[in-house]
Design the sequence.
């Protein structure tokens, strides 16, 4: 199990490192970024909705979380 | 729509106040179970060009009977419960030229559970602002006081958790971007469920979560595809994979329609035992009959309708339905599980100022 977890962490780290190399793909110039500023392109369009929905899933499924730190716990799981 | 403060590379020039109301209900064949009503409030206030503060308040009112094998130990209807949860959190973010630092605190209180947490996060971005790196750390101190625990009273039991985050956001081209992060959580303390007979869990829980988001805008239909994938490796033995897809469709007159589908498949915890209870229980060994730690698949279907109103006001209504079944898992699901269903309705109202 410890070996499996180490492999999982290594794969995830490699994916993140690959993203860091995506500068070679050809990111847009500042004047080309209009569509990226759309509200629908944000990753956290509604922080309140995200917190409440995540709480529902954490209380009904085995393990939850990811993407944030320091959110605290609850008696729901 | 609330500003994406967690990814912003500069302080927002608008504040936001938002109200949200959740009406949640779950059930199993032949019986309604838990009902939760949850009003909540969020506010973000720019204090200056480089400083923002945000926070939220949540109140859950819980009533009903616990679902079979989720929170009870017999095949009977389950204990009736009435409970509440009140929670608050706040975050202060300071923006510098090419970085930002945020410090946060959270507090949550229930009849038998108290949680206090703090966090700090640092973000920096490249000169062309096409790449953002994030490092974060959090710590939580929880206390459990289950006076009516079925295995005996659980008095003032601690749980401490430390989280660490590493993330990157990358603009791929003029219409797509991706974010990926690893979160490592290391917790020690009391993890058994005091309301489940014989429930005995490890005193340490380590969770590795890998979360990736991908957004792409399509100018033809004026819509955005949002894809999320998350993998969790839990030291308890359950390993869920989750995939979620949303299509944000702009409509005339300021409306936006967003259908969503989410699928989760998870393996069982190493100490989960199939029904009938208490099959597999050996005194002194780890054990749980909690179906949330079983092997199952789950699907959520959601639909959200939002409307932009005058004066910076946005209103939205969302409906989500959820079902969990053992035979929906990719691979072998745990036998003997009653299907679990839930639905939640959300009403939201926000104003930018």
Sequence:
């Amino acid at each position: 199990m410890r070996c499996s977890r180490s492999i999982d962490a290594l794969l995830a780290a490699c994916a993140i490192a690959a993203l860091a190399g995506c500068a070679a793909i050809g990111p847009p110039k500042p004047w080309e970024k209009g569509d990226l500023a759309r509200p629908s392109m944000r990753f956290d369009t509604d922080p309140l909705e995200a917190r409440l929905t995540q709480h529902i899933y954490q209380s009904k499924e085995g393990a939850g979380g990811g993407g944030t730190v320091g959110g605290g716990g609850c008696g729901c799981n | 729509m609330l500003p994406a403060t967690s990814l912003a590379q500069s302080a927002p020039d608008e504040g936001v106040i938002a109200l949200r109301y959740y009406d949640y209900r779950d059930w199993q064949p032949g019986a309604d179970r838990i009902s939760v009503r949850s009003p909540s409030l969020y506010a973000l206030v720019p204090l200056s060009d480089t400083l923002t503060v945000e926070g939220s308040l949540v109140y859950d009112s819980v009533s009903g009977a616990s679902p079979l094998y989720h929170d009870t130990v017999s095949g009977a209807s389950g204990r009736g419960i009435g409970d509440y949860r009140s929670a608050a959190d706040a975050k202060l973010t300071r923006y510098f030229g090419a970085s930002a630092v945020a410090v946060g605190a959270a507090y949550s209180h229930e009849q038998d559970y108290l949680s206090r947490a703090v966090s700090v996060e640092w973000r920096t971005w490249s000169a062309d602002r096409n790449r953002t790196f994030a490092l974060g750390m959090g710590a939580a101190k929880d206390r459990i006081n289950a006076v009516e625990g079925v295995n005996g009273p659980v008095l003032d039991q601690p749980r401490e958790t430390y989280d660490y985050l590493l993330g990157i956001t990358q603009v791929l081209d003029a219409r797509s971007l991706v974010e990926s992060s690893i979160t490592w959580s290391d917790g020690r303390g009391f993890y058994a469920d005091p309301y489940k007979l014989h429930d005995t869990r490890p005193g340490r829980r380590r969770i590795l979560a890998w979360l990736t988001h991908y957004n792409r805008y399509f100018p033809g239909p004026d819509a955005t595809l949002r894809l999320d994938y998350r993998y969790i490796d839990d030291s308890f033995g359950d390993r869920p994979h989750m995939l979620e897809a949303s299509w944000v469709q702009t409509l005339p007159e300021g409306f936006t329609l967003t259908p969503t589908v989410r699928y989760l498949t998870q393996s069982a915890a190493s100490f989960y035992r199939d029904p009938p209870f208490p099959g597999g229980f050996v005194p002194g060994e780890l054990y749980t009959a909690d179906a949330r730690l079983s092997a199952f698949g789950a699907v959520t279907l959601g639909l959200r309708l939002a409307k932009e109103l005058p004066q910076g006001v946005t209103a939205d209504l969302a409906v989500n339905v959820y079902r969990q079944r053992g035979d929906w898992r990719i691979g072998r699901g745990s036998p003997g599980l009653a299907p679990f269903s839930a639905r939640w309705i959300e009403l939201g109202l926000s104003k930018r100022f």
Q: What stands out?
A: The longest strand of chain B covers residues 154-173. Chain B touches chain A through 115 residues (CB under 8 Å). Chain B has one domain: 16-352. The CA atoms of residues 73 and 196 of chain B lie 6 Å apart.
